[in-house]
Amino acid sequence: MLRLGDVKPGDMLYDLGAGDGRIVTIAARDFGARAIGYEIDPIRFIISWLRIVFSGVSGKATVRFKNFYNADLSPATVVTLFLRQHTNENLREKLERELAPGTRVLTYYWTFDKWKPVKVDRRVDIYLYIIGISNS
After folding, report:
1. pLDDT value of residue 11
2. Is the pTM of this model over 0.85?
3. Which of 24, 13, 84 is nearest to 48 (CA)?
4. Domains of the chain
5. Nearest to 2 by CA among 135, 95, 126
């Protein structure tokens, strides 16, 4: 997923629905990006936090126990999602409003009905959208 999005040092990755913290940890450790995950499930939040701490990336990565609908997403250069179709659609307007043109949005399995992906990895159902291109 992160390779398809060309994640690199200097990127600010936001993982919406961080789950077990895997994406945030890998983005920081293997790709050199700064990363923030948002998670509202307390168990998953703790698992994410522990993964970040024990992976030694807490200087570059963090997870917040917060609903991403209430977060300012504007600093992101990359956003990753593994959310259901209806959640993606509910989130679409917020992404269009807050993300700068050129921001990469990566989804696993579920897509955005009104956006056209720039790249698709069909082997694993990962879709890359770019704000200002995919939503035009």
Report:
1. 99
2. yes
3. 24
4. 12-130 (3.40.50.150)
5. 126
